[in-house]
Amino acid sequence: MSVHELRPKAGETTEKITINLGVIDLGQIDLLVQEGFYSNRTDFIRTAIRNQLVTHNEVIRSTVARKAFVLGLQHYTRRDLEAVQAAGEQLDIQVLGLASIAADVPPELALATIESIVVLGALHASAAVKAALADRIR
Predict the structure, then answer these.
(1) CA nearest 85: which of 67, 106, 71?
(2) Where are the chain's structural domains?
(3) Tell me: the pLDDT tens digits for 56-100?
(4) End-to-end Cα separation, the chain, in angstroms
(5) In Å, how far are 30, 61, 91, 118, 129 from 23, measured between CA atoms?
(6) What is the pLDDT of residue 71?
(7) Which of 14, 43, 55, 94 could form a disulfide with 39 if both were Cys (CB 3.0 to 4.6 A apart)?
(8) Are 93 and 99 in contact (CB under 8 A)?
(9) SS3 of 98, please?
């Protein structure tokens, strides 16, 4: 199993979110864009989010450590899960970032080796694996 700390870069995997803003807030954002402070609304929102994450960095890090989360990317290959199965063990996956399960992992293997999944961020797995693990994903 590989663990990598991630810092998103242009062109890397992103997740789309939708937010609702009041018209006054939106107008203020548009004004800043029009005045050249930001290239577009998305640039403003990403910058605001990153600034808040920096502000709360210590809380995030201490919570990740306390709750034993993997910070960044955690990828599980078929070989990883077969080794867990051979050892007669099960995984409790806790990731802040991106957890991915390889596309060649069959649902039966995932069920046999994954006790629970908590992902604060994104989980990438086949639809069949996600369906099989639905009651174990929190």
Answers:
(1) 106
(2) 23-55, 68-136
(3) 999 988 887 777 788 889 999 999 999 999 999 999 999 999 999
(4) 21
(5) 10, 34, 46, 35, 41
(6) 86
(7) 43
(8) yes
(9) strand
Structure tokens belonging to residue 59: 């809380």
Using left for φ > 0, alpha for ψ between -120 and 50, and beta otherwise, residue 65 falls in alpha
**Residue in the block written with tokens 């994104």:** 122
Chain segment 17-46, per-residue pLDDT in tens: 899 999 999 999 999 999 999 999 999 999
SS (H, E, C) the chain: CEEECCCCCCCCCCCCCCCCCCHHHHHHHHHHHHCCCCCCHHHHHHHHHHHHHHHCHHHHHHHHHHCCCEEEEEEECHHHHHHHHHCCCCEEEEEEEEEEECCCCCHHHHHHHEEEEEEEEEEECCHHHHHHCHHHEC
What is the average pLDDT across 107-122?
A: 96
